[in-house]
Amino acid sequence: MDPEAFLDLANQVIKLKMFPYFDVAHSLLCALAVREDLGSGAQAFSRKHPLACWLSTMLVIFAGGMVANGLLGEPILAPLKNTPQLLIGTITWYLVFYTPFDVGYKVAKFLPVKITAAAMKEIYRAKKVYDGVSHAAKLYPNAYIIMVIVGTLKGNGAGFTKLIERLVRGAWTPTAMETMQPSFYTKASLVASVIFVLDKKTDLISAPHALVYFGIVIFFVYFKLSSILLGIHDPFVPFENLFCALFMGGIWDSLAKLLGKGQPKEETKDTKKTN
Hints:
Blueprint: H1 3-14, H2 21-38, H3 42-48, H4 50-61, H5 63-72, H6 83-98, H7 103-109, H8 111-139, H9 144-155, H10 157-160, H11 162-168, H12 184-201, H13 209-229, H14 237-247, H15 250-274
Helix pairs in contact: 1-13, 2-4, 2-6, 2-8, 3-4, 4-6, 4-11, 5-9, 6-7, 8-9, 8-12, 8-13, 9-12, 12-13
C-alpha cells in the first residue's frame, strides 16, 4: 500500500465517531459477557432478578469510566449522564435477555455478527485507552504511571469490576481479581497505554501519531479475531514465562530444587561409609 494512502487511512480511523455504532457493539458484547457468565441459569435469573441483571450489565458497560473516575477523584456515576449511551446499553441488554424465543441472543452469537461486533469493540477499546491516557495527562502532566493506570482501566475496566459485578448478582467470588490473573485485554491495554504515553510524552517514537494509533487498533483487532477464529487467547504468555524465569526467581528456584535433591543423596552415602 502507498505510504500516503496508509497514513490517510490511519487518519480516518483516528477520526471515527464511536456513537452510535461502536457503542452498540461494545454494549452488545458486554451484555453477552454477562449472560455467558451466568451460565445455563441465565434465562431463569433474568426473569427472577431483572434489576440485578440490568445493574450488572450497566456496570460492565460503563466500568472503565467509573473506575477511572473513582481513582481520579471525579464523580463515579458521571459516565451514566450520557443518556443516549445508557439507552443503547439498556436496549442491547433487553435484546440479549428478553427477546421472544431468544432471537436477540442467537443473532448476537451468530459468528459473522460476533466477529463484526468484536472488531468494532476493539476499535472502541483503542479509543478508550487513548482517551484515558490523554485525560490523565491533562490532570497529571508528569505522572506517567497514572497515565498508564488510567489508560489500562479505561481499556478493560470490566475486568477490574468483575468481583463487584458478580456481587450485584448475588455471587461472591473473591478469587476473581484481575490483578491476580490479568486477562489478555488488561495486558494489551497496559501495553497500548505505555506506547501512547511514550508517543505523547517522549521522542522515542518518531512515527506520526495517527500511525501509532492505527497500529494499536490493528494489534487489538488482530488478536481478538485470532482468539475467536484460531483459539489464540493470550500471546503474552510465552514472554511472561521467559521473563519470570529470568528475573522473577524461576531459574534460581529450579536450581535450588536440583541442589536440594542432590544434597540428601550425598548425606546418605556419607552415613553408609561411616557405618
